[in-house]
Write a structure and sequence with these properties.
The complex is a heterotrimer. Chain A has 9 helices and 12 strands. Chain A is α/β, with parallel strands linked by helices. The longest helix of chain A has 18 residues. The termini of chain A are far apart. The model of chain A has no long low-confidence stretch (mean pLDDT about 85). Chain B contains 14 helices and 24 strands. In chain B, a hairpin with a 4-residue loop joins β11 and β12. In chain B, the strands form 6 sheets. Chain B has a 7-stranded mixed beta sheet with strand order 9-10-3-2-1-12-11. A 5-stranded antiparallel beta sheet of chain B has the order 4-5-6-7-8. Chain C is an all-alpha fold. In chain C, strands 1-2 form a two-stranded antiparallel sheet. Chain C has a two-stranded antiparallel sheet with strand order 3-4. Classes of the chains: A alpha/beta, B alpha/beta, C mainly alpha. Chains in contact: A-C, B-C.
Amino acid sequence: MIKAERINFSYGNQNVLKQVELSVEKGCFISVIGPNGSGKTTLLKNLCRLLQPQSGEVKIDALSIKAYKPKMLAKKMAVVHQEIQNTFDFNIHEVVLMGRYPHLKALQNESAEDLKIVEKTMHLTGIHHLRHKSMSTISGGERQRVMIAKALTQEPDLLLLDEPISHLDLKYQLEVLKLCKSLNREKQLTILTTLHDINLAARFSDVIILMHHGEIVKVGPPAEVLTSELIRNVYEVDVTVIHEPHLLVIPH
Amino acid sequence: MKTFMKKIIAVMLVAMLLWSSVPTVFAANLAVDGKMQNVITELAYGRTYVSTQSLKAFGLQTAVSGSKITINNSAVKFEFTSRSNKVKVNDIELTLDAEAYIKENIAYVPLKFVFETLNYTVGYNANTRAITLTKNAELSFPLTITDSGETYTFTKTAKKIVSLAPSITEILFTIGAGELVVGRTKYCTYPAETAKVPSVGTLYEPNVETILDLEPDTVIAATHMNEEVLAMLQKAKISTLTQASPAKIGEIYTLIAQLGKLTGKNFEARAVISSMKAKEERITSIVKSIPASQRKTVYYVVGTGKSEYSAGRQTFIHEILTDAGCINVAADVDKWNYSLEKLIEHDPQIIIGADYSYDTMKGSSNYSSLSALKNGSFVTVNTDIFSIPGPRVMDYSMKTIIQKIYPNYAGNLRF
Amino acid sequence: MEIQLKRRNNFIKITLLLAVLVIMAIFAVTQGNVKISVPDVVKITLGLDDSTTIKASHSFIVMQVRIPRILLSLLVGGMLSVIGTIFQALFRNPMADPYVMGVSSGAAFGATIGILFGVGGTFLGMGMVSMLAFIGAMITILCVYQLARVGGKVSTTGILLAGIVINALLSAAISFLMILFHNEIDRIVTWTMGSFGAASWEQLGLIFIPAIVGVGYMMTHARELNAMVMGEDEARALGVSVDRLKKVLLILASLLSAFAVSVSGIIGFVGLIVPHFFRMVFGSDHRVLIPVSFLGGGLFMLVCDTLARSLLNSMEIPVGIITALFGGPFFLMLLQKHKRRSEGI
């Protein structure tokens, strides 16, 4: 449903993405991994139009991303970032409610329908009991779930996540990924996320994209991508890969 | 033999002295608007006097009672006192630089003063050796005053005035228009009667409500006031007049004359101007007699400390200093900005300023090289008075300079 | 439903605020340096005055001096607060106030030029000095905008920095001019301290429509501002046209602040503290916060100006001093709260 065709992107003189091509199918759970500087986040930003590639095209449902008006695009895809700097206090309910923005006209008030959707996503992400609290009083994991709830409230077809769990405790890392997985399975929500942790990526993804120096080195199911040879080339680390009981990469 | 000669010389000297102070009588020629007239005049104290009897020919009534000399017509009244330089014109009191006197039952009063007050221009024709008197045009309304490119028209005399400048307030009271002043700024503190007049704030932050409540017909300011406030006053049908602050002594006379016209106190205004001009003339002649070698270099302190402010060219204080025979070292700049370095380089003989300026200078090593400070040649004056371009320019400012800097010549001031 | 309850609560609070404002405005008409009795004031306002029972000057004072001044202070206070609210959201910076784009120093510079070199005369109720202040503010806004622009986008950090630089430059220029023309220092400093002393119906007529239209338009973008507060990227992901929004709101808000400054000089703290105060009471939802800031800012300014013109009998205190006296302690409180919160994390 989302395609990147020969994307080239540079920050000033620095060429960060080189001829990147990828195709994401509906209902897929895809992780993008690679060392720092490999271009993961830049790729994600190009895919959600936060950045514009110097050459190449991003297509969503066969239509160029440039043709989408901002609200249209926001109904198609939602983005969850690494961390939000929140200086002002909204409460949880207000934040999640913002997800309905793409669906509302300028002066239109939220309808009962909108409020119901918010209730649903809050329950789905397990934060309903926090809805009156302000953002600064909840934990990091809870905050991330709020952002996911907000993204879900947009009712998107595609959810993009940028390092969503990097500074969360293990417990919350698993919580968030499990949530994403269940949404993916039960709601057919296409998920594309960049991840740091190779093993978590292996555990939850259908497809892994391995990047290195701005290029895609390998795309495929985890077992195909996570070979000791490829990992040595990209990460410069010797590892042992075991496949039972499930795929695990153990560095030496 | 020697002592005898000394005695003769002494007697001759005394006789000469007595002779010079005795008024010389002569029947002079007077040309009034071209027509010749004969009047009795005398020369005394360096001024021409006219006998009160001669004034009858000009439609004036005169009376002498004891030492009181009264001259009046339907519009104006003079009250001189013999052997005194004080005179009363209508309700105002002035000091002149010459005394009226009575000799052999005839009263003599200063000619120029009386006729200038009566709206004549007094001159002297050297060819015909006659004093010329030319009547000036009488005042009538509408009155047009032009100032700094703006023209103001008045259709009648002002009856209730709010004054927004100390110089204006002072002049109004001096010409006897004090009871027309219904409002003043908090800085208008001279003369003492101003204390009874309510304050309306300051020029830049006037209290519009208070001004309006006083229901004046005219508001006068000395410098541009806030335009929106101006518009508000005009909306309330109040006439406004903005006069640029005088930068020359001559402009002070113009200002006094205009305020006299505006308030209908024309005789008083002309009297004040005449007395000021006479004093100015006397000071000029005194200064002429001071030899160049005795002239002092001076510096006037407007402000000191962090930066130096003095009276450069194009300020009326500069004119005061030079007219009073001083050499103003700050004449190498225009207006008010000066510099410490220049002051040190010029090293004036005398520094004139307020006592707090003296403290500032004494308290800082920056000024330690100035010989005026080392020699104790700092002349303390009231700089508030100095900074007001008004009648006290003669009576206080110039007089103080002569007295403090050329004390040997101060005896000739006569006021 | 909770939201209905919340909306009802807000409605009540806003109505209360409006009521206080109206009462305060009525009270303010009776205050001033000239004592005019309350029944007289009522008669004059209702047009029932005749010159026999009430002094003509009193009627003039009430109708031409006090009432336009009260309305003007309400309007300007409201404008400044709304602008402050908008800037605080756009820049995601609690320290942002209406003058971040250099409007204050630009206007002060224009006014200084007007005071030193200008001729007199008024145009549509605005004196020369006010006109030049407005022009100065506009030119400064354009300069800051250009400096901060990269391609088609405007960087908020860029604006803050450019604003600081231009403020510094112009302030230095003004100080220099004050030294050169040091006998006009009084006049220049008085102007910068802010005052409604010159208020008139003409001035009110001039800014009334731009103010209402401007604030109204900004209201329509309230929801987008909520999203902006979460972050520019967040807002974009939600479908907000961030770059267009920034451009439009920045220019519109700066334009309104230029109007405000040219009419009343530089009055600080209103645009800074009023939004913060009402955020604490009403929350951060801009759909409520903007109208509330407008009302609250107007009320605050009205109170300060009424004090400014009636506290001392002999003179007017520049209203900027009163707002600072209120604002300073409040700001300290804010800092304390912020410190405590950040230490708690």
